[in-house]
Amino acid sequence: MNYKFDILAKPDFSSVKITIPAGEKLKVEASSMSSMDSHISMKTKLKGGLGRFLSNESVFINEFTSEGADGEIMLSPGPSGDISHYDVTQGDLFLTSSSFVASGSNVNIDSKFQGFAKGFFSGEGLFIMKCSGQGDVWFNSYGAIIEVDIEDEYFVDTGHIVAFTSGLDYEVKSFGGYKSFFFSGEGFIARFKGKGRVWIQSKQPYALVSWADRYRRIEKRNNN
To answer: Which own/partner contact pairs does 34-37 have at CB distance under 8 Å and 24+ positions apart?
Structure first.
């Protein structure tokens, strides 16, 4: 079953309004709900354990049930950015850390081990989230979301990856030689191969921190 939804205030401060059919459930990342109808109830469940913790997701999932009639819920995730939607009936979806917002009740959410090389060197953690089954998944970004359909090969900076489909494989590598890696300001990239789609965020937190750090006030100490 697919739920009716409307994504508002794209692409900078997006929220998503979802209609939960009567008697149905919606799985939502902790702290994402901003408003809802009064006949919607909530239960908090422990999900994913260590894998979700290591992927920077909350180990708790809130399940919202619309009782007696259809109900509307508004979700507003923390990052200042966009929200996108995907129907996993088309194929599995992989999400990078902290991008999951919500899913339908028939979507299975598991943590997938990336491997030590991909995890440590990508800067995105050792685990990503795998969404499978049937129905809707909503995910968010920092900045706007850009969709790219890949037919063969494509390179993406690891800090800009939000999600990608199961038809793609990837490897993480440095961009250029050692001099380029340390002095160009570019880090690791993911080399995607295959046929599928990748969602890219237009901004990344690490670049913002690096830019803002030069304006940080430093207290000068008097050694006298």
So the answer is: 34/74, 34/75, 34/76, 35/73, 35/74, 36/64, 36/71, 36/72, 36/73, 36/74, 37/66, 37/71, 37/72, 37/73
Contact 190, 171 (CB under 8 A): yes
188: number of Cβ within 10 Å:
17
Q: How far are the Cα atoms of 38, 62, 96, 140, 222 from residue 45, in angstroms, in the given order?
A: 21, 6, 21, 21, 54
Using CA atoms, how far apart are residues 79 and 82, in angstroms rounded to an integer? 8
The region that residue 48 occupies, defined by phi over 0 for left and psi between -120 and 50 for alpha, beta otherwise, is left
Encoding tokens for residue 1? 């079953």
How far apart CA 81 and CA 176 sit, in angstroms, is 30
Question: Could you give the dihedral angle defined by the CA atoms of residues 156, 154, 151 and 205, in that order, rounded to the nearest 10 degrees?
Answer: 0
Query: For the segment 27-86, what is each residue's pLDDT rounded down to a tens digit?
Result: 999 889 999 999 999 999 876 555 545 555 556 789 999 999 999 999 999 888 999 999
Q: How large a percentage of the chain has pLDDT more than 70?
A: 73
Q: What is the C-alpha to C-alpha distance for residues 219 and 10, in angstroms, rounded to an integer?
A: 40
Task: Give the pLDDT confidence of 166-186 residue by residue, as tens digits.
Answer: 999 988 887 655 444 444 445
Residue 178, helix vs strand vs coil: helix
- The one-character DSSP state at 95 is E
Ranking 121-130, 148-157, 196-205 by mean pLDDT, the lowest is 121-130
